[in-house]
């Protein structure tokens, strides 16, 4: 007798049933739209994102632990590199913290020079994102203009410091050395040239219907979310959070530049608002650079730094210094046991806090809008991982 044939049934998701199936999609860690080795773990329902988790740490170098094994001159090199687009500003926060511990007064010329170089570094940072963001949305032309303007400013920064990206020009007590002869005139000409050509971003990018269509009303970040996640910088101000350390807690020479310093804000909180804030803030930084050059021309010759002992030790205690870096607020918590190395130096970087907001921004949006939202957060992966 022939045994009965065994029957098996397999149910395959078809039709409407398939649409309710969640799919986990990894964007990165190697992906052109992530500005480096950042990984996004997305849960999708069809083409809509239901959950987003930034996975960080792929570039972690343990800089905070290395601070504890380097003296106060050497840690400047380590702090210089986490946000490679803002090297001068990164150095600045460290030396301000150490100078505060020492109770050290910096010469006036050094204060104004630091302010000038910090604003030139801010313009360099912003130009990179003004060029790369349209590139991520399919517009290749803007990045060529951005790099042309960056090159003009890079030339004057390289002339004064010897470095193209990692300037290593700050020192505890001032700056490395005085200005080369004729440098201020060349810097003024570079600032004027860049300002005269900034209109190309209004015409080429903001005037582009496709760019506006991809960014207006997309990735709206509320002011409440900004406060909840500790978001800062142009991203926070694009959501109506009117806060800028240069105005609200002035450091360096910003207290004397309040008539030039304009804090740029928007209320929409979308991708377009973030780009507009970045672009307008670049204009403000160019104006601040001109004001610093005017003031330097009026100052009499004088020292650019303080003489330091051969072995520099900070007194026992702790202090906190924070600065308005190009991407947002950087904080430096320094603890000293009276030795030549920090007992602890905790770094609060802007990108680390800003990227957390993606967990709130991305759910509910389409996969097609993910790159537009991600690019508008203006982060550097090294600044997240440290």
UniProtKB/TrEMBL annotation:
Where's the NADH-quinone oxidoreductase subunit D domain? 137-310, 312-386
Q: Which UniProt keywords apply?
A: Cell membrane, Membrane, NAD, Quinone, Translocase, Transport
Q: What is its main location?
A: membrane
Membrane topology annotation = Peripheral membrane protein
What EC number(s) does this enzyme carry? 7.1.1.-
Family named by the database record: Belongs to the complex I 49 kDa subunit family.
Protein name, UniProt field: NADH-quinone oxidoreductase subunit D
């Amino acid at each position: 007798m022939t045994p009965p044939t065994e029957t098996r049934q397999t149910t395959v998701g078809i039709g409407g049933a398939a649409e309710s199936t969640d799919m986990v999609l990894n964007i990165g860690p190697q992906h052109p739209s992530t500005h480096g080795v950042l990984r996004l773990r997305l849960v999708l329902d069809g083409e809509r994102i239901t959950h987003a988790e930034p996975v960080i740490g792929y570039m972690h170098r343990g800089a905070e632990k290395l601070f504890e094994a380097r003296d106060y001159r050497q840690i400047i090199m380590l702090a210089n590199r986490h946000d490679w687009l803002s090297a001068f500003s990164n150095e600045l926060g460290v030396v301000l913290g150490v100078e505060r511990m020492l109770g050290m007064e910096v010469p006036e010329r050094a204060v104004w020079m630091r302010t000038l170089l910090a604003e030139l570094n801010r313009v360099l940072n912003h130009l990179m994102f003004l060029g790369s963001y349209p590139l991520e949305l399919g517009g290749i032309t803007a990045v060529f203009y951005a790099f042309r303007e960056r090159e003009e400013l890079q030339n004057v920064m390289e002339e004064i410091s010897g470095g193209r990206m990692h300037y290593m020009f700050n020192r505890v007590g001032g700056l490395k050395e005085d200005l080369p002869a004729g440098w201020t005139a060349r810097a003024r000409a570079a600032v004027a040239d860049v300002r005269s050509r900034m209109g190309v971003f209004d015409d080429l990018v903001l005037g582009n219907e496709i760019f506006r269509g991809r960014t207006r009303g997309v990735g709206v970040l509320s002011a409440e979310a900004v406060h909840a996640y500790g978001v800062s910088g142009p991203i926070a101000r694009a959501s109506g959070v009117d806060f800028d350390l240069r105005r609200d807690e002035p450091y360096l020479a910003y207290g004397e530049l309040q008539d030039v310093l304009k804090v740029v804000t928007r209320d929409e909180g979308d991708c377009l608002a973030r780009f507009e804030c970045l672009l307008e803030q670049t204009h403000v930084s160019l104006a601040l650079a001109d004001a610093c050059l005017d003031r330097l021309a009026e100052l009499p010759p004088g020292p650019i730094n303080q003489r330091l002992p051969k072995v520099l030790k900070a007194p026992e205690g702790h202090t906190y210094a924070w600065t308005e870096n190009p991407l947002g607020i950087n904080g430096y918590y320094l603890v000293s046991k009276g030795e030549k190395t920090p007992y602890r130096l905790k770094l609060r970087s802007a990108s680390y806090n800003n990227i957390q907001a993606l967990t709130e921004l991305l759910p509910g949006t389409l996969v097609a809008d993910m790159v537009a939202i991600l690019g508008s957060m203006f982060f550097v992966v090294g600044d997240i991982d440290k």
